[in-house]
Amino acid sequence: MTGVTQRRNGIRGAVAVAGIGETTYYKHGHAAESEYVLALKAILRAAEDAGIDPRDIDGFASYSNDRNDPSRIAAALGIRELRLANMHWGGGGGGVAAAIANGAAAIVAGFAECVVVFRALAQGQFRRFGEALPDRAVTGDAAYLSPYGVLSPAQKYAMRATRFMHDYGIGNDALRAIAMASYNHAQRNPRAIRYGRPLDRQTYDESRWIVEPVNRLYDCCQENDGAAALILVSAERAKDLPKKPAYILAAAQGSEYRSAAPALNSALMPTASFSTVAPRLYEAAGLTPADIDVVQSYENFTTGVLMAIVEHGFCSPGEADEFFTLENLSAPSGRMPLNTSGGNLAEGYVHGLGLQLEAVRQIRGDSSNQVPNAKLALTIGGPMVSPVSSLIMGSEETLL
Amino acid sequence: MSGAFYLPEGMPAPEPAADGLDAAFWKGTRNGELRVQRCGQCGTWQWGPEWLCHQCQSFDMRWEKVEGRGIIYSWERPWHPVHPVLREFGPYLVVMVELPHAGGVRMIGNLLGPVGQEVEIGAEVEAVFEPHDEAPVPYTLVQWQHVS
């Protein structure tokens, strides 16, 4: 970073993840409990993991319009005083790293001392994301898309990816490597919905198209019921708690110029929306892609991972075919171990919060696909939406 | 009317926004005109519609008739049906069409012709208006076909 003035970064090392928790991940519609109960259980498990009394939680941060109201949860848990109830705008997983960043910023600002970041989904109780509403009439943005059969996220985002892969001559083998890395990692993760259900090359290649030419079945995230949560406290407090702290080193959120222009008219159409966020993240962290030991990158679709990783500087678009191989993406010894829990594709889909928990496990050293001596973990949320977010966590030695 | 439309009847029908933002666009397609927003102050083209110009922040947005021609910017062939009326229908083709003569704005439509046809980014296409006269609120979609 010689010659570059490092951006002011007030959260660096000031806040740590002290606890993580999740419920069982279920196939969509299969949870026996309501979304709200799933949220409560994930929060309690995160508090237990952190070694704190759940009544000491004083802040909540979430994203994607989570339906579970912090005030109700605070009353239900007997929380002594609610000091922060923060919702990050935007849909999908674009806000997953931002919600953690917002919670961390609130702790640094003194608004709260113990913030839980959570997300709960029960798509059986509510609706699936991948199915169109049975509306007869549509207005606004949808009027320019839905009548032509562009209804689902897969159909909206394939336009970006098709153009990106065309521009750089990237083949679908790169997408297969991303899918297979997640499935391979899930085979060693008993929490994963796809545990015991490996994916081989032939099964991928013969799977049906969801949206040709970029999304086969295995390129698309699952839709699940479940909840996940993590507990943020100050670095000083984290040192006195039982689990090894995962420190927040830097975070960035947002999107580039007119990223969300209506009717899919993004100024930079063939991107995952990180062209400004990723450089800002590295600048704030004082790090480069070469420093990162392990990456957890939100998979709505493998195409989003492909573009997000390129935009985070791990390879140029022209190098993508060579870079995105199963070997390179696999723990423990790949060049860039990716989605080591199985991620949204194979572990469970709770809008990417599971991937943040996995980054914490890597820093702690207790992932089921541990990257030896992992000190720096990058997490990426919400490719192709706006706003997106990404974040870097580190172990204590990275604070020096 | 079945057979006159690219996608089956029962797909979501577009209606002008209640606040009037894009009434002129849908009125135009009823008359076989493709209209794009353009700033009355600085001439910037804009799509989709907004209340003000993203370049100069003027609220003087006008609707200009443009030639229904463009080039394919991106495309897709959805197979998995996500709407009930598509369940027995099979795959279909969607194109994103760039209009170089209107500031490079991009519009979404279906590509008429065989669903299995090869689609090339950069190919020239022309607009084909698809009226839905029997709909409760009649409307006209803008579809695309290769320039012969």
UniProtKB/TrEMBL annotation, chain A:
Q: Which Pfam families match?
A: Thiolase_C_1 (PF22691)
GO molecular function: any one? acyltransferase activity
- Thiolase C-terminal domain mapped to chain residues: 268-389
What is the name of this protein? Lipid-transfer protein
From TrEMBL, chain B:
* Domain ChsH2 rubredoxin-like zinc ribbon: start-end pairs: 26-61
Q: Name one Pfam family in it.
A: OB_ChsH2_C
Q: Which residues form the ChsH2 C-terminal OB-fold domain?
A: 63-130
| Entry-linked Gene3D superfamilies | 6.10.30.10
Q: What is the top-level taxon of the source organism?
A: Bacteria
Q: What is this protein called?
A: DUF35 domain-containing protein
Which species? Answer: Oceanibacterium hippocampi
Record lineage: Bacteria, Pseudomonadati, Pseudomonadota, Alphaproteobacteria, Sneathiellales
